[in-house]
Structure formats: structure tokens, C-alpha cells
Amino acid sequence: MHTQPLLSRQRLLASLLFALFLGAPVALAQSKDPLQTSPSAAPIVSDDENAPVVLLRRAPKISEIEFEVMVGSQGSVNQNGPVLWQLGPTTFTLPLLQKGTSVDLDPSFGGARVWIEGKEVPSSQLKIVMQPAVAGATKVDVTIPSANCASIRVNIRALLQLWKIEIDEVAARKIAWPREWPESVRPFLAEDDFIRPSDPLIASFVQQTAKGNLRGVPPYDAAKELVLGTLKCLKQYSAQYTVRGWNGSIRGLNFGGNFSNAAMLGNGTSVDAALSCVAVLRNAGIPSRVVYGGTRENSAVRGGERSSSTTYITWCEFYLPTAGWIPFDPAFLKSRVNGTMDLTKPWKGFGNMDWLDEWIPYSYTPIPRGTNCADWPALWGWTGPSVGWTPQNLLNNNPQSAITAVTLRFTSRSRGKVDSEPAPRLP
Question: Of 253, 262, 256, which Cα lies nearest the Cα of 314?
Fold first, then answer.
């Protein structure tokens, strides 16, 4: 059964009866002095500015970033003769986060450029619109005129401030379950692209882990144990985030095909691990989301210098009232789950992530809402005549007439002017 958030007195009563039905309560987090909370605890006002600071961001970096998409026809790439698209007005949608746990977007957006067959399109012929998506996310719509062509390149630029993140775990463990979640975070409890919290495997895993006492411990403790248990289920694991295309270019995100129940099936990729953790937390009634971003390749050294080669990266966040969105890194934690991990002590990679100033967060969805992707989910999308692709094609690896290459660039420019500040409570 899918555990729903407590949105009303009726659902509260139903969840209590369900907990009693499952059996005797067993604490999720094994602690010498566990913090016991109750669903009947007084509600917490999520925007309470007087609440203790739980999540701190510090040591900001200013970085200039670019997200670039090149779309080419299969005919021209495979050298099977010229294959031209006859496109009407087409809109490319590229992702940016305006404000998040570890990022602030400079309000003076850097702009967009487009090239068709290698020739730049005058800005006067482009329509560029920035519009909000969800929870601090922004999408940049770049509409190009009609064209017959075999290649299109779209580039957006922006200036971001990126932060390291650290958590006061003692304060986090004192936060009780709310009677209801703030309206702005409720979408992160629902079904979503590649995230199926109602999957029977996930529902069964949550029930077995909680032992009928899901709300007998603070939500922070519950989240830690659920994430740890999820990652322990992954036996066959690929740490690759990115699918590469021709000439080693970035094609898209490395989904293993099992998506949000990958951990329950025992195998998946880093992207699947993030999806699994989020699906489990949502089933348990904790708002959570995947953060899709980009970073430099780890340990990429060429000619004695660090490589500028880039890759996709994913991590996760879950919401705590009065604290904000708590980040955690499933891939980092996965490398440590077979060791001793004390649930009562702080973990590096769970709330404490001093490497987020090197990770560019772009989106909370693998494909922008209301758009299609050309041949693989890659954070951007397009709409218009002759454009069509759906996530269902992913399992069959069935691209349309376009193949794509994504380029992620970022350059550190300077330090931020403020050493530290509380993370946003409701970005």
C-alpha cells in the first residue's frame, strides 16, 4: 500500500490504523536515546524565520556556465547522403535553476545564441523567453524560424553562485513530522517522469523497513534509514551518469532501464539509484526530488592538467519543515554502505556536501515539462512540427531522425561576497 502524506485528519487516522495493522512498532533509527515524535505533534510553520538554522551554505563561488545542444540528422552523421529536416518554427527548451539549495542565478541572464548549418541566426529572428517551471526552476524557450537543415546548435549562458552545504544534524533530528506539507512541496510526493512511488516493490520495501513505526522517529532519521536500505539493495551497480554518442559526445542520462525500482531489483546506474531513493522517500510520505546537473569528469587528467571534459551528475534532496531541502549524494553513500554507518551520527554526503560548489544544478526533471527529447533524455527538450519523442521509446532505444550532442561548460570566475548564509527554506 502506498503511504500517503498526512493532508487531513481522516488520512491521519487512516495512517495510524495502518501502522497498528502492520504490527508492533520498531524504531527506524537505532539510537541510545531515540527522539520519539508523534503524528499529533504541533504543526510546524515551514516559513518560520525564527526557527533555528539547520542547513547552512558557505564559501560561494561565482561560475559562468553554458548549456549547449547540437542536433544533427542521422543521414549527415552516418554519411548516407544528405538528409534534411523541413522544420517549421521550432522551440528548444533548455534548463536553468534560478534558486535552489546550493545555487543562485544572476538575474541578468546571459542570453542565447543559435546556429543553423554553422551560420549564426541573427538575434532579431529569435524569440527567447525565460519562464518559471517549479520550485525555483526556470526554463529558457528559444524559438527559431522555419528552416531546411541538417544541423542546429543552440547555446545558453548564465552566471551562477554555487555554495558548499553543511547541516546541523542535532537540530535536524528535532524536527517533527508536520500535519501537512507546504503546498509548494507537495508535487514532490507524486508520480513523476521515471519516478513511481506507488510501485509494489517500493511500497513493500517501505513497509518492511518501517515495521509499522514510520512516524515513530523524526523524518530526518526515517530518511537516513530508508536511503541506506535502498542503496544496500543495489548489488550490481554502474557509476556512470552519462550515455555517450558519436565522437564521445554527451548524448543523455544513463538510465539502466529499471528506473525508480532499480534498487529493489538489485541492479542499476547512478541515475537509477537517485530515482530509487526518491521513489522510496515519496512512498514514505517525505517530499523528495532528483537534482540533475553537470560537473567535470572525476580524475580526468591529460598532459598533467585536469581535463575540462564534463559529464552529467545527479543527486537528491528531501524536504524538512523549517529547514529546507536537504541534499544527499546516493553515489557517494553507495560506496560506503557496506561499511559501518551509524544512523545516529552525521554522514558525509548526507546534508554535508562540500563539493556542491563544483556541481551545476540544472533541473528537477530529465525532460522539460511539455516538451519532447530528440533521441534520449538529456535535460533539454523541443517542440514544433516534425518533432516527436516520448520516454516510452527509451526502453527500445528507438531514436527518431535526430541525434544530439550536449556540451556543458563552466568556468570559475571569483569568490562570492558573503562567507555563509542559511539555505533557502522553500526554494
Answer: 253
Residue pair 352/167 in contact (Cβ under 8 Å)? The answer is yes
Q: State how beta strands 351-352 and 310-320 pair.
A: unpaired
pLDDT along the chain (427 residues), means of 10: 34 32 30 26 47 92 93 54 67 93 91 93 94 86 86 93 95 94 94 94 94 91 95 90 85 89 93 96 97 76 50 96 95 83 89 94 93 87 64 39 82 88 87
pLDDT for res 49 = 63
Distance from C-alpha of 27 to C-alpha of 7, rounded to nearest angstrom: 23
C-alpha atoms less than 13 angstroms from C-alpha of 258 in its C-beta half-sphere: 20
Q: What per-residue confidence (pLDDT) applies to 342?
A: 85
* Residue whose C-alpha is closest to residue 205's, from 186, 226, 188, 219: 226
What residue spans define the domains of the chain?
1-427
- The values of phi and psi at residue 29, to 5°, are -95, 120
Provide the grid cell at 247.
Answer: 565522437
User: pLDDT at position 148, please?
Assistant: 78
Q: Which helix (H) or strand (E) holds 351?
A: strand 351-352
Question: 201 φ, ψ to 5°?
Answer: -65, -40
| CA–CA separation, 77 and 238 (whole Å) | 29
Nearest-angstrom CA–CA distance, 375 and 218: 43
Answer for the pair 374, 153: CB distance below 8 angstroms, yes or no.
no
